[in-house]
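To: structure desk
From: M.T.
Subject: fold request, one chain
Message: Could you run this one when you get a chance? Sequence is below, nothing fancy, just the single chain.
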Amino acid sequence: MPEHEDPGGPPDDRVEVLQALEKLPPGQRAVVVLKYWEDQSITETARLLGRTEGTVKSQASKGLTALRALLRFDPTAVGDQR
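Reply: Done. Structure tokens follow.
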């Protein structure tokens, strides 16, 4: 049994997410990684990147929208097997 659980999901999914992240513009990628991967708050993400909270929120929204498109994520398809 592994010492800790990998929060990234199955290896194939993790690789797919990392490849999609590489396609995001640098600003969106930084915000998405800090906010969702590193679990930083909006305030902390803004501080770390030297941006306003409004910019961080906007970049997070745009980044998640782009990732969903790149990964063809359909939130209505619970348990969807691609």
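Reply (cont.): DSSP finds four helices and no strands in the chain. Let me know if you need anything else for the meeting.
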